[in-house]
Amino acid sequence: MKAAVLLLALPCVLASVVDTVSTNKRPNILFLQTDSMDGRVLDPTNPLWDVMELPNFRKVARNGVNFVRNYAASPQCVPSRSTMFTSKMTHVIHTWNNGQGLGMDTHGNVDRHCAAKWSVEQCLAWGAVQNVSHTIVDTMKALGYQTVLHGKVDVGANIDTTDDHASGFHGGPSLNILTRAANIDKPTKPNPEKITNDNKESHPGDYHIINDCVNFLKNRSAWREPWILYCSINIPHPPFDTKGKQWWDMVNASRITTPPWPKDWQKAYHPYDQYMTISKHVEGSFTDADILKTRHTYYSMCTQSDAMLGEVLTALEQTGTYNQTYIMYVSDHGEMNMEHRQVWKNSLYEPSSRVPMIVAGPGIKGGRVVTNHTSLLDVYPTLAVLGGGNPPSDLQGHSLVGDFLKPKLYPPSGRPGYITSQYHSNMGNTGSFMVRWAEWKYIVFGTNGAAFKNYGPMLYNMEKDDLELHNVVAEHPDVVAKMQTMLEERIGNVQGIDLKVKLQDRALFKKFFVDRMTTKQLMHHFDRSYHGFNETSWNKIWVWYKEFAPQDEVVADVEKWDVEV
Predict the structure, then answer these.
(1) Residue ranges, the chain, pLDDT below 50
(2) Beta-strand runs (E) in 299-427
(3) pTM value?
């Protein structure tokens, strides 16, 4: 029955899109995406601008508009990309983590990767709740665009992908994700030193993606204009690998700083950040040389990604249609790169949550830098308008076309003047929610569960403290009250959302681990998931398991495991 609803909903919602298509010839669109690009590196007012050479991205920025205060709606691959492809927030489409993308496509079919990693039954249940009737792909096709996708999609919904791992469901059921609220303070990732190598090729498969994109542009006989070409590579996503003096030398080592780390970080850091530091295995001792090597290697990867996508831009220029094509460049999330004693993404701090967005093309006055707060939720409606249509009415992002093309024709209506983000996945032991408004950033944490009752909020003045080192929440109660209202207006009951995710995590842990494994098998999985997992860790699992489950179910299961242990 649910599938029938989805099938009926798609033509109805997209009808308004098609009806408004301009009679003029519509432009082609080149959509470029990297993974893990810290948005600050393309902000000309940020010190990171001078750290590395990014000639191709900067050329697009010179020719277009650079949104330098742009944020991921949830800073992890699947949650970020699925929210971008649907323009729906994480708590609306329930793509909470890298193992849970869109379980069904917009025609009511179960995603094939979801079924393989989880089960058809589970994917049907997710699809019914997610209720996604259209994505960027559907809208652009409805507008008459030839829609070509190469590289990392990582959304689910049977959207074509050439990467089975980055399918929207990664490894399926994951203990690191499902048991995060058990608050096991053990590393779940390799030490950054172990994944930093300045003599190893990074993501060699990305070159195949680049070749596919270039070949499409060169083979004009394959074009059915208008087209949108989605070209998405993995680099500069960790591991931190780079090979070749070329990329290393495009980084100005003298400009790389060692991020400030408090000596007694266990006391100085918020408990949420303490957990994330340990989970990411950055809790140990590191020399300045260790830190700078990782940071330099990451920036080298950024320069390589610029060169790789530069090949696609060069191929576009050679077609003679560069000036008639809209170009959009984004990243799904950033990279902590040893700031706040962290690597990877997952955090609502700037290095992780702030991402680039640049748009160039016909009619756009070049060299403009926009400092209004924007979101990857805005990508879908912006592309719909560039394609000559109106965005579907149920999108939660807003078209940015009025920021760079004829504001009177494309008024920026309905935009709230602030953005939100949230995170509910591994390496974060509880839910986190963020509002970015004016000079302020406000972060709130889920307090469901005894371990999190004292997790207070954080407030940063980004103009005075852009490294987010000084929590001034106690000094500005008026700002806190205002931003809490913004959070609730935009997202709703954040504690209710946090509880919903934790209850689902626990239920999936029971279904896919407890009910299917012996004690020995489960312990083996925990040993592989948490470095140094021990008896204390084991006991914490069952305290959490009991706390977030119906009593009549918990008593039976806990007694069973206690006896076997």
Answers:
(1) 1-11, 19-23, 555, 558-565
(2) 325-331, 357-360, 368-370, 374-375, 419-423
(3) 0.94
